[in-house]
Amino acid sequence: LFDAVTCLAKENARLLVLGRKHMLMNSSNWKREIMKEMQNKADFFFAENISEDDAFLLYATLRSGKHCRFVTRDFLRDHKACLSDSLTRHLFRKWQRGHQIVFFPSAAGRSINFLPAFRYDCVIQTTGDTWHIPYKDVFEEKYSYQVPRKWLCIHQK
Questions:
Q1: For residue 48, what is the domain's CATH number?
Q2: What total number of domains does the chain contain?
Q3: How many helices (H) and strands (E) in the chain?
Q4: Residue 59: exposure state from Cβ atoms within 10 A (0-12, 13-18, ≥19)
Q5: Can you say whether residue 98 is alpha, beta or left, with left for phi > 0 and alpha for psi between -120 and 50 degrees?
Q6: How many CA atoms does the CB half-sphere of 143 hold within 13 Å?
Q7: Label partner for 147 (CA 20 to 30 A): which of 1, 27, 74, 103?
């Protein structure tokens, strides 16, 4: 968490960290001085320890506007499963791909990197006589925020 907050704070982004109240207790996992340092770089909201904090995350992201992004390791599958129909689930996945920033450790494990949220939708797109089609070389399981990185460009003559 400290590395993620530090990395994002360098970009002068306004940050809100959603956590649980147990993070305020000095422990081996949550050192008081490190928490204070993070609180100087970001705003914090601490939910009850037994709370379902995903609801806070979704509300804060939606309430903060269309340019807001969120970072979580959660794939939000439970929330998608609760949606009433396939169109709503599709819209949620589309919104998630456009707003969720994914973090992963670097190869050396010394820092973290972020995959930005997508600025485009992962569907066939066309402009006049040109088609752009997302594809994968091999079948692999993917998470809802992952889209193919390769696009086939077809131009009709």
A1: 3.40.50.11980
A2: 2
A3: 5, 8
A4: exposed
A5: alpha
A6: 13
A7: 1
Do residues 145 and 75 touch, judged by C-beta distance below 8 A?
yes
Residues 48, 32, single domain; the answer is yes
70/29 same-domain check: yes
> pTM of the entire structure?
0.70
Q: Do 139 and 127 belong to one domain?
A: yes
- The residue-averaged pLDDT of 66-71 equals 90
Mean pLDDT for the chain? 83
* Calpha distance 37→41 (Å, rounded): 7
Give the model confidence (pLDDT) of 109-150 as tens digits.
667 788 777 766 667 778 888 988 877 777 665 555 556 677
pLDDT value of residue 153:
87
18 lies in the same domain as 44: yes
Containing 78, the helix (H) or strand (E) segment is helix 77-82
Q: Which domain holds residue 14?
A: 1-118
Pairing outcome for strands 125-127 and 112-115? unpaired
- The residues pairing with 153 across neighbouring beta strands, listed in sequence order, are 132
